[in-house]
Structures are given as C-alpha cells and as structure tokens.
Amino acid sequence: MKFNNKVLFFILCIFALVFIAGGCSPSSSQPAAAEQVIRYNIGAEPATLDPALSTGMTEQTVANALLEGLVRLDKDGLPSPGVAESWETSPDCRTYTFNLRECYWSNGELLTADDFVYSWLRLLSPETASPYAYQLFYLVNGQEYNSGEVKDPASVGVRAEGKDRLVVTLKDPVPYFLSLTAFPALFPVPESAVSEDPDGWTLTPAGFTGNGPFKLASWEHNKQIVLEKNDRYWDRENVKLEKLVITLVADSNTELAMFENGQIDIAETPPYREMERLAESGELKVSPDLSNEYYMFNTKVKPFDQVLVRRALSLAIDRESLVTNLTKSGERAAYAFVPPGVEGPAPDQDFRSLGERLTGGFNPGEARKLLAEAGFPEGRGFPVIQLLLDDNQNHKAVAEAITGMWQEHLGIQSKIIEQEYRVYLSTMFAKDYQVARVGWIADYNDPMTFLDMWVTGNDNNLADWENAEYDRLIGAAAGEVDRAVRNGLMFEAERILMDQLPVVPVYYYTNPYLERDTVKGVIHPSFAIFAEFKWAYVE
C-alpha cells in the first residue's frame, strides 16, 4: 500500500507531538533490538584451522569466517571484491594483476601483497605437505616448485609490486581462476604468527591472526568455537552479527534435539530418519549442492586392486532405493562422478548434458558374474570388507544399507569402522584402509574440481589409482582454451574413471538443514563451504 505524502506528514506530526508531550524515551516505545548472535552446529571438531592444511568442509567453513582471500563469493557464487578491490587480466588471460585495498590483520598489522606471496609459496612448499598444493600448479613453475625441481621462489608466478599490487602469472588460461582465489587454501596467513608457532598458531585466540569478518574469541575443543565480529575488518560496517557460536556436535540426533529445544539456531545435518517429518512440518530447508557421495577403494590392497571386484560391488548397490527410501531429501542416484549443475561445454549447458550414465545401474546378476570371474563365486573366499567412515549417523545409515546389499546379493560380509572425524581423515591420508565412504563438494564451479584429484600422485588421490591415459586427458584439458574441446577432454577422462571405478559414485547430494526464521542473510552455497556468515543477522 502506498501512502499519500500529505496524510503521512500529518500523521508523523501528531505522533511527534504525542511523543514530546508524554516525555517518552525511544527505548520505552520501541521493541528491543534482537541480539546479534547465531548459534550454529557444524558437526565434528575441525581437524585444523590452517587453510593450507584443511581438507574438509568443517575446517573451510570456519576458515572462511576468520580469513578472506583476494575475492569473496557473493550469494550467487560469483566473485566479488575481497582483499582485492579491483583486478585486471591480460589479453591472453594468463596474467592477473590484483589491486589490494588498505586492510589489516586482526592484530592491527597492515596486510600486504607480500602476505599473499608468502602464503601461496607456503601452500606450494613440499615442507608444508598441503593436500591442496595442486590448486596452485596453474602458476608458472608452481608444480615444479612443489616437486623441488625449481628451488628459486622468485621464479614462481606470483610476486608483489609494492604493498598493494599482486601479480599472478599462469601457465595457461584457467577459466575459474578468479573463483579459485576465494577458496580457503589460497587465503593469506600471517608469516609472523606461523613462524612463531608453526604447529599451534591456529589453536588459540592469542595465536590466531586473521583478516576476515570475524575473529577467534575462544575454542573449547570438542565443545564449541566462538567467533566475534572483527572490528579491524575492512567491510565491518556490513557485518551485523556480533557473535557466532559454533557448536561441535557430530551426532545428528543430538543436533536435532538441540535445535528443537532452542539451543541452536542452525542445524547442518538433520538425521535421515527424520527427513519426512521435518519436510512435512515445513521446518526442513533444502538448497542445491554441487557434491557427491562415493565409496573409494584402496587400489593397492587386494582384492580391491581388481577392476572386476570394484565393478561387482558397484553393480550390487541399489542407488534408487537409497535415495527413495533412506535419504529422502531430493538426492539423485549417481551413475557418473561429476554432479549435475556444474558448468559445461556451453553457457546454457551443464557438464552432465554430455552424458548422464557412465557406469551401470543396479544389476545383481551381472555383479555376481563379475565377482565369479574375479575368483570369488557366490562371494566364497572374499575377505570381510573393512569399511571406513566418520562418526556421522547419516553416513552410517547409508553404509549399513550398502553393506546389507553386498551381503544379500554377493554373499560378502562387511565390518563398519567408525572413527572420529580427525582420526578418519588421518587414516585415509595414510592410506590405511580398504574401502572408505567419502563425500566431495566442489571447490569451484567447474568439472575439474571433481576430476584433477585422480591424477597419478595427486595428494587427494587417496585411492592411489594410476592411469596414464586419464592423466594425459586431464593434462590436455588443463591447457585447453576452447570451452567445448576442454569439456570433451574432461568427459573422456571421466569415462575412464567410471570404467575403472577406483571410486564408486552413490548419489548426488542436496543440502538439507534447519534454520530459524529469525536468522537472515546466511548463504548456503552450492560449493566450497557449508555456510557464509558475513552478511548474516538476527531479525
């Protein structure tokens, strides 16, 4: 409804007279402003808050609140100015020049271009042993510096021109490079804090120095992390939230009870068994996700070194039953590795338009035939599968369903090994497992984020799989400028991945969560992190 201006003016005058005559104060006539505190359960304790060493969504979500890269992704997942207030790209798209704004670390020190040079070289350094070092292999001499072939850091394609200009030189054009600079692994870290305590600088408020919208106020390990607004953040005027209390409860049933009892405002992982009830009540919110659930084989461990075994186990999984009868949050059965929605060969096409099904669906008869060919007729002689997963009830529910299918259709028994999140990650990175349940969410919106990690020797290739033709195709795609040709190369590589099945896709995720109606401005991105709190507030 639109008020007439004269009538509105008259009403305002009368109100002003009454207000003055009554001697009322604003505090007695207006409702109290909402306390700007959000209580958010993220799940398991983060393994680390060092962006160079983090691998999981838990770590990266917290790091995204405490630190900021050259750009920050907006509500549409597009790069917006972060530490860099502007940038230019050379005509050949190989050189980026970032113009840094005046901004400060939370300890009051000026953040400079040299901080990015230090942080990116640290990410690449073999001494750091970062699982995400390969994200900077796009830089001139980035991979060579990581391998030790190149010793001189000045020869790597990142340099400072004064305090406020960062120049980045790529080997080849990378269409998603700007978005990649918003990924936590590429965040700046303070050299002084890291040098003083390399192993513990992120563990306490006294040691942690950041440049993001929030600062670390406290960390009660395995209980909660408290973040407070960073008054030295360059865009602090647009940060409304005063405090973010992050609880560390891995049990999804406990998390749900906390939400329903008013102890938290956002529940990140509602239990599968409650999805229907929560959806019917209108409490369940679901956002899209560029991610997948998959089972990974250690290809150096018998009998999982046999492709026939891996194919048999894949064909014995009834994916449609899982998403219809168990997960119930809009997930889709996966018959390829890259999920729908990832950018593809043309602006109006996603990658899956090139082909939906690259691996076979539920076919227990064919699975038994392949298992027999591998030397295990009716499952006889097959060892008990040791299935590794983290201590998440939803992951366990899926694991129980899948191992039940393997027992029913192949005669194979399994033992589920649950480990606390940090221990689970360590076990996988040590490659001390047979089969592991894993989830992967895109680091950026491009098929490469799901494919380049399976190249021989990649630190995230925890299947320890090797395939020379796959490596060649991914290498060719990395240097290809033509979008359609590049996507075609990646699709052919994915065909090989799904033929050899070092990883078996199970379903494509959605992002179901619970959030109070008074919570506003939280972004639930489809990739990289669970939630973005910079623009969050309480109404």
UniProtKB/TrEMBL annotation:
Annotated Pfam families: SBP_bac_5 (PF00496)
Transmembrane domains' residue ranges: none
Cellular component terms (Gene Ontology): ATP-binding cassette (ABC) transporter complex; cell envelope; periplasmic space
The keyword Transmembrane helix belongs to this UniProt entry's keyword annotation: no
Keyword ATP-binding in record: no
Primary location class: other
PROSITE patterns: PROKAR_LIPOPROTEIN
Keyword field: Signal, Transport
One example of a Gene Ontology biological process annotation: peptide transport
Localization per record: Cell envelope
Molecular function GO labels: peptide transmembrane transporter activity
InterPro entries cross-referenced by the UniProt entry: Peptide/Ni-bd (IPR030678), SBP_5 (IPR039424), SBP_5_dom (IPR000914)
Family named by the database record: Belongs to the bacterial solute-binding protein 5 family.
Protein name, entry field: Solute-binding protein family 5 domain-containing protein
